[in-house]
UniProtKB/TrEMBL annotation:
InterPro entries: Ribosomal_L18, Ribosomal_uL18_bac-type, Ribosomal_uL18_bac/plant/anim. This is one of the proteins that bind and probably mediate the attachment of the 5S RNA into the large ribosomal subunit, where it forms part of the central protuberance. Part of the 50S ribosomal subunit; part of the 5S rRNA/L5/L18/L25 subcomplex. Contacts the 5S and 23S rRNAs. Belongs to the universal ribosomal protein uL18 family. The gene is rplR. GO terms for biological process: translation. GO terms for molecular function: 5S rRNA binding; structural constituent of ribosome. CDD domains: Ribosomal_L18_L5e (cd00432). Pfam families: Ribosomal_L18p. One of its GO terms (cellular component) is cytosolic large ribosomal subunit. This is Large ribosomal subunit protein uL18. The keyword Transmembrane helix does not apply. The keyword Ribosomal protein applies. Keywords: Ribonucleoprotein, Ribosomal protein, RNA-binding, rRNA-binding.
Length: 119
């Protein structure tokens, strides 16, 4: 029986999240979600179950920059780093979910690091 793309993605996401949660107990989580058109990031406190900061390309000022989604992703990364600093957060762990660490996801992570987040 062949696995569908969705099943493989879900398996990969659970594998990544479980390893991260096991090794980063008590830290905040920078969670990424990427679709074909948009990318979003959330800074989540799993202990309290609250989102402390969020940024997305669906916001008007962070929207698509032409047709280059990598530029938009880097704007989201810079915005999430700025909002995390306002919330008093400097350190977290990067949860890429089931997405591969290249392209838009890598651009977001690099911009967040340049903005001052440590992960």
């Amino acid at each position: 029986m062949a696995n569908s793309k969705r099943t493989l993605f879900l398996k990969r996401r659970l594998r990544v999240r479980n390893k991260l949660r096991k090794n980063n107990v008590g830290k905040l989580r920078l969670s990424i979600h990427r679709s074909n058109k948009n990318i979003s990031a959330q800074l989540i406190d799993d202990v309290q179950g609250k989102t402390l900061a969020a940024a997305s390309t669906m916001e008007k000022d962070l929207g698509m920059v032409g047709k280059n989604n990598v530029e938009a992703a880097s704007k989201v990364g810079a915005a999430i780093a700025e909002r995390a600093k306002k919330a008093g957060v400097e350190e977290c762990y990067f949860d890429r979910g089931g997405f591969l660490f290249h392209g838009k996801v890598k651009a977001l992570a690099d911009a967040a690091r340049e903005g001052g987040l440590k992960f």
